[in-house]
Write a sequence for this structure.
């Protein structure tokens, strides 16, 4: 059995964070494990509160798992403090981890800053060099390179500059670029590829970033190379959004098991 570890916060509504990560791993036939960095109080409408874990607890969750189990990929989600970032980096340097997919959760889909400047600097300093793949959205990429991204050429230029920050490979997610398609630019340090998917009109997009980066990690755990892993993850997240669930009064979650439900003829439940 292939195994992936998510290092991220818990989403009480189940659509994002470690809940989305574990569902995504399972949907790919990968056994998922978690190191919880924070517990949130949230639903489909908003985040009401957050309680971070002690850094030592996060550190020890990671090291104890590697002491016992062979892990084939790691996904890192939102980590909001310098102390947590340092604890995660210390733990991963201790265990010599497999490929790491880092989702640099710094800016929300609406453009709201989620990470202060000091924590952002720590993320770049301590975790970017450890990551095999970085997956910023347009807003996050703009913050990382300190300039606007308005078109595909800008996305390619951003990918080049983000690699200079220590990343090995990058996926610049263009879902927020106003085009007819959801376009991503992926770059491995030598070759660019452009991935496009149909634009899905829905408000139910909670957890899409978490799900996409976890799908990349799951495919890497399954032995896929970078371009294969991202291409398969792009197809998966598109399907999950197309079958998104209208739950709650706000932004509902994507459907992580849409394909499995279809095969089991359970779609009528939703």
């Amino acid at each position: 059995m292939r195994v992936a570890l998510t290092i991220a916060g818990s989403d009480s509504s189940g659509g994002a964070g470690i809940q989305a990560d574990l569902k995504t791993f399972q949907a790919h036939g990968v056994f998922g494990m978690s190191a919880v960095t924070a517990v949130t109080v949230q639903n489909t409408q908003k985040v009401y509160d957050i309680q971070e874990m002690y850094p030592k607890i996060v550190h020890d969750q990671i090291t104890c798992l590697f002491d016992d189990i062979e892990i084939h990929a790691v996904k890192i989600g939102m980590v909001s403090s310098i102390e947590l970032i340092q604890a995660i980096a210390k733990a991963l340097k201790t265990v010599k981890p497999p490929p790491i997919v880092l989702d640099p959760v710094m800016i929300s889909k609406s453009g709201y800053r989620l990470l202060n400047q000091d924590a952002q600097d720590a993320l770049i300093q301590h975790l970017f060099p450890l990551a095999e793949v970085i997956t910023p959205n347009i807003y996050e990429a703009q913050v990382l390179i300190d300039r606007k991204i308005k078109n595909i050429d800008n996305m390619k230029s951003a990918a080049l500059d983000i690699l200079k920050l220590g990343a090995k490979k990058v996926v610049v997610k263009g879902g927020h670029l106003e085009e007819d398609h959801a376009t991503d630019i992926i770059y491995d340090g030598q070759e660019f590829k452009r991935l496009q998917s149909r634009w899905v009109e829905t408000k139910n997009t909670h957890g899409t970033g978490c799900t996409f980066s976890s799908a990349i990690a799951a495919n890497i755990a399954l032995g896929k190379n970078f371009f294969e892993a991202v291409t398969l993850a792009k197809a998966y997240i598109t399907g999950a959004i197309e079958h998104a669930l209208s739950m709650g009064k706000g932004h509902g979650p994507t459907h992580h098991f849409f394909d499995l439900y279809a095969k089991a003829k359970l779609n009528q439940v939703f």
About this structure: The mean pLDDT is 91. The domain at 3-269 is CATH 3.40.1190.20 (UDP-N-acetylmuramoyl-L-alanine:D-glutamate ligase). Residues 82 and 121 are 9 Å apart (CA to CA).
